[in-house]
């Protein structure tokens, strides 16, 4: 029976993890693009699928009964466990590499994503008029993102030295690489030159150029953060759009709190 998968997503770091994995595994899937700027992720129909109101979300109706999944890390594990018997993006359960993948997956969802997300918020989208608050936020989260990038740089150096590997775990691409990739590609946009981390730069260039991964990155729309980061005008437009979105979210949350 062919998989019957529907992915609710947008062109964002947590979204492209899943499209890249689906493409690399060669799985057929339907994409429903969620408009974050229109706050579709907060609408009742989406909250039925993902009560947390975030992308991505996956619905699997392969066996005739909906399996609904939120959280990108959980979705990656689900795809690996159910649809990767040849271990194209995973390793045999119980093996040392299997648990290393879990390490780096949990590290990303608990550290790299949240910290770098806050870095981007204060650097580009913060709507406060208090420069001290914004400056503290930028320093705090940019420095933490640098620390996390250094952790990845050290890991890649160890992989290269001990296993002659270009990947975070073992000798081939895994969901650990895909989990981190979308965030690392935001390095320059986060104000952190990729050249400061040469092995990480080599890794992101190599992995993002894999044809299936590239197709996943460009689904549901072209992943253009590198181009945005190089253009002052595009960066300004992205910042203004992001700030407007943050303001709308804040106003909605304020209304909910007053009920």
Main sheet: strand order = 2-1-3-4
Number of domains: 2
Judging by the overall fold, what is the CATH architecture of the largest domain? Up-down Bundle
Number of helical stretches of at least 4 residues: 10
How does the overall form come out from the CA principal axes? globular
Mean pLDDT: 93
Q: Report, as a whole number of angstroms, the end-to-end distance.
A: 48 Å
Structural class: alpha+beta
Taking all Cα atoms into account, the compactness measure Rg is: 19 Å
Number of strands: 4
CATH topology category name of the largest domain: Glutathione S-transferase Yfyf (Class Pi), Chain A, domain 2
Strand content: 5-15%
CATH class of the largest domain: Mainly Alpha
| String of helices and strands | EHEHEEHHHHHHHH
Spans of at least 5 consecutive residues whose pLDDT stays below 50 are: none
Q: Which bin fits the share of residues in helices?
A: 55-70%
Give the biggest sheet: 4 strands, mixed
